[in-house]
Amino acid sequence: MRVIKRYRIHAGTFAWILHRLSGLGLIFYLLLHIWVISHLSGGEKSFDAVMHAFGSPLFKFLEVGLVGVILYHLFNGLRITLIDMGLLIEKQKMLYIVAVIVWLISWASVGMVMISRMVLPALG
Fold it and tell me: Quick check: 1 pLDDT over 60?
């Protein structure tokens, strides 16, 4: 009987897994968003109660994470689109590294603005 070799995770596999997970996260967010919006039909009090719960510091922090998920999915999706169009096929690993660097810089920049807008009103 042949021994099954241990599967090695390459950069492409890691990119594939993260892209699928970020897509699932975005689907979850979309469903949550629809659920929140559906409270408008219950009247102002119903909607305000839900929005009050989502105004907590935990959800404000999770919004920064949501932006990170959106940006990762965006930049990795652009990388996949380029490869699907037949461009830079031989440079997939380098393209993934560039996408991750651009993602992290973008997320850090937007995240700092979001966090500063959360912290400054709390201080003043």
Answer: no
